[in-house]
Amino acid sequence: MIKTRILQLIGSLTTLISPRLNTEIMYFLYFKKRINLKNPQTLDEKIQWLKLNTYYNNELVKKCADKYKVIDYIKEKGCEEILNERIGVYDCVENIPWQDLPFKFVVKWNFGSGFNIICQDKDLLDINKVSKQLEKWGKRKYYLRFSEMQYKGVEEKILIERFIESPSGNIPEDYKVYCFNGKAYYVLVCLDRGSEQTKFYFFDRNWHLQRFNKMGKEAPEDFSIPKPEGVDELFKYADILAEPFPFVRVDFFLVNGKVYFGELTFTPGGGYDKNRLPKTNLLFGEILKLPI
After folding, report:
1. What pLDDT is stored for residue 161 in this prediction?
2. How would you classify residue 269: left for phi > 0, otherwise alpha for psi between -120 and 50, otherwise beta?
3. Is the Cα dihedral 160, 191, 137, 54 positive or negative?
4. Whose CB has fewer CB within 10 Å in the chain, the N or C terminal residue?
């Protein structure tokens, strides 16, 4: 916890001085080596390049990083059918009509990552505690830590959406599709979400396991999971939504073959994702062609 707070402080201060300085320092702290911004090779290096050279003034990226405004983009791309039901949008916590909300729902801020609360039983919800947490998150300048400039200046909104649940009533599997140069290549499947043993595996479009991370590398030789109904449609939607971008991760939920849009992520892990293997970072970096 102390280390995290120190990193947040270093990130915030250096971003205020210079986003490039922030990037150089944070990259060294995470990877113990200097970043190559003149000739980036890995996916993380290229994400940092995009962040510094295009994301800060790319209005489409800013729009799509905003969980409130991205809905307009989804509709413009003709994919309205994959949108989840939005119950309400509020400017501040005090305006949330807790008593009118359904038994299950999700509440989140429209900027950054991780600022969400999943309610599966409103009768057990500590509204006072949740309200204080939302207020605390709302005061955060999320973009500062990693100079994720696409979040700077976002008009803050609290979103409340329908809880998407699996047939068992739990949080459904998460499908994070890695897209390069406007095309979907691989999906990171997140199993057992909400548990202490979440599992992460990469698959290609033909549903072949890709040993891109530690769990995939250590999986048995004959390991696989059944190909989910609707995953081919999921990849097609990812192609459509990723079309304008050199790189984006398109996140979905998939329940009984029905595809639900999650979000567009331009800087996964802030661009410092140590969960992928080093050779994966190089492979993804080779696939991604920068607009230079």
Report:
1. 98
2. left
3. negative
4. N
What Cα–Cα distance (Å) separates residue 86 from each residue in 67, 68, 98, 106, 208? 11, 10, 15, 10, 35
SS3 category, 8 = helix
Across 192-282, the runs of DSSP E, i.e. the strands, are 199-204, 209-210, 247-255, 258-265
Q: Which residue has the tokens 């489409």?
A: 60
How many Cβ atoms are within 10 Å of 85's Cβ, its own excluded? 12
Residue 132, helix vs strand vs coil: helix
Tell me the pLDDT tens digit for each residue of 75-99: 999 999 999 999 999 999 999 999 9
Domains of the chain, CATH where assigned: 36-82+170-292 (3.30.470)
Which residues is 259 bridged to in the sheet?
Answer: 254
pLDDT tens-digit readout, 228-241: 999 999 999 999 99
pTM of structure: 0.94
